[in-house]
């Protein structure tokens, strides 16, 4: 039972969702960040929904109300929409670009996930944010 959802289970919350959304909220397995590229390639995934599940290694990130699954909490949901035009053979897919380039190896400027986590951890980790001349959010390198 997930106490953060008023005692409702994940299945209580997902009965009317699409198959893709249900798979996101109750995944068969979770993929580690280092395995994201292989996972995308093996399944020829180009676009779709994705979620970032976290364990207790981020103790200062609040988890109240988050969906829990196998000891992990869903803290972020994103979408990688399909490309408008035909894909070039060497260009990265929207899913690869979002998951790998933005979230895994990106900066706070390229990832809402990273920026959100940094904002949640700002005081605990003594992080400093500022805006550059083009009004983009920046963070001091730690």
Describe the structure.
There is one protein chain. This protein is of the alpha+beta class. It has a domain at 3-84. It is 32% helix and 17% strand. The chain is built from five helices and five strands; from the N terminus they run αααβββααββ. The protein has helices spanning 10-14, 19-25, 36-43, 94-104, 112-125, and strands spanning 48-54, 68-69, 72-80, 129-131, 137-139. The strands form two sheets. Strands 1-3-2 form a three-stranded antiparallel beta sheet. The chain has a two-stranded antiparallel ribbon with strand order 4-5. Strand 2 and strand 3 form a beta hairpin. It is globular and about 40 Å long. The termini are far apart. The model is unreliable at 1-5 (pLDDT under 50).
User: How many DSSP H or I helices?
Assistant: 5
Q: Biggest sheet, in brief?
A: 3 strands, antiparallel
Indicate the overall shape.
globular
Rg over alpha carbons: 17 Å
Query: What proportion of the residues is helical, as a percent range?
Result: 25-40%
Which structural class fits the helix and strand makeup?
alpha+beta
Distance between the termini: 38 Å
Q: What order do the helices and strands come in, and which of them pair?
A:
Elements: H1 10-14, H2 19-25, H3 36-43, E1 48-54, E2 68-69, E3 72-80, H4 94-104, H5 112-125, E4 129-131, E5 137-139
Summarize the structure.
The chain has helices at 10-14, 19-25, 36-43, 94-104, 112-125; strands at residues 48-54, 68-69, 72-80, 129-131, 137-139. It has 142 residues and is α+β, with helices and mostly antiparallel strands. The protein is globular.
């Amino acid at each position: 039972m997930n106490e953060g959802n008023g005692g409702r289970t994940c299945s209580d919350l997902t009965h009317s969702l699409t198959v893709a959304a249900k798979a996101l909220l109750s995944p068969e397995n979770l993929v580690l960040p280092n395995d994201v590229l292989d996972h995308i390639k093996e399944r020829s995934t180009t676009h779709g929904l994705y979620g970032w599940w976290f364990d207790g290694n981020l103790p200062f990130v609040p988890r109240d109300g988050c969906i829990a699954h196998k000891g992990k909490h869903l803290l972020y949901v994103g979408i990688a929409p399909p490309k408008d035009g035909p894909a070039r053979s060497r260009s990265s897919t929207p899913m690869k670009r979002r998951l790998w380039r933005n979230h895994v190896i990106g900066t706070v400027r390229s990832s809402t996930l990273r920026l959100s986590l940094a904002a949640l951890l700002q005081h605990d980790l003594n992080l400093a944010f500022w805006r550059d001349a083009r009004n983009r959010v920046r963070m001091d390198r730690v």
